[in-house]
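Q: I have 253 residues here and want to know how they pack in 3D. Can you give me a structure?
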Amino acid sequence: MSEAPTPVFQIQDLHVATADEHRIPILKGVDLTVLPGEVHALMGPNGSGKSTLASALMGSPEYEVTGGRILFQGEDITDWSADVRGKAGIFLAFQYPQEIAGVSVLNFLRQALSARKGIDLSMLELRLAIMEWMGKLDMDPSFADRYLNEGFSGGEKKRNEILQMAILEPELAVLDETDSGLDIDALRVVARGVQEVRKARPQLGVLAITHYQRLLTELAPDVVHILMDGRIVETGGPELAGRLEAEGYDAWR
């Protein structure tokens, strides 16, 4: 009898509050386990705690874990800083990627890859790797030399996030509303990019946080979770997203 695989990550009874003087509780006991190669979708209305969960997973100082723990590949990382989590192999695709003036996409990826893996690729080696992925993501090759996200459209910013994910080769990818602001064509390109990364890294665990079923139609998640008022109120297969589309969140209020 084969042993069960070690989860890529687990959230155990996670409680999170704002890290200010108000200490407002947002997550109120979340449990979630992602196995290698699985895609999980987390859905919920505005204010349910979805983006707070993404921020907490990345160790954002804006939030404080007040109970429970976060495990990454079997190790307790609840107290790890954001940079240590990133180096270990946790990647967050932001809902609103930041612009960084004066730093090209190529230079940013070289620095990030060096921090992540201790690999100092030559600019030529990195450019060749980037060009291959840019082709898969339907990106203009000239973007490699442009300043990070400066003047990029919403779709270009999101594709650039997937490019980073492909190059950095994380173990866990958290996609925080990657579909936000995208038209259906851009969404398909981004979703196909995620699937291309998964083909290259079949053990990659993915947590996709979204409002909409349209992303899930493209990603075909293994597990769907519904988050309401800081708690996961139901977990199921892809059919749960279809039920949500038909009934709305009122069915779980």
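Q: Anything worth noting?
A: The chain has one domain: 35-59+80-252. The chain has a mean pLDDT of 88.
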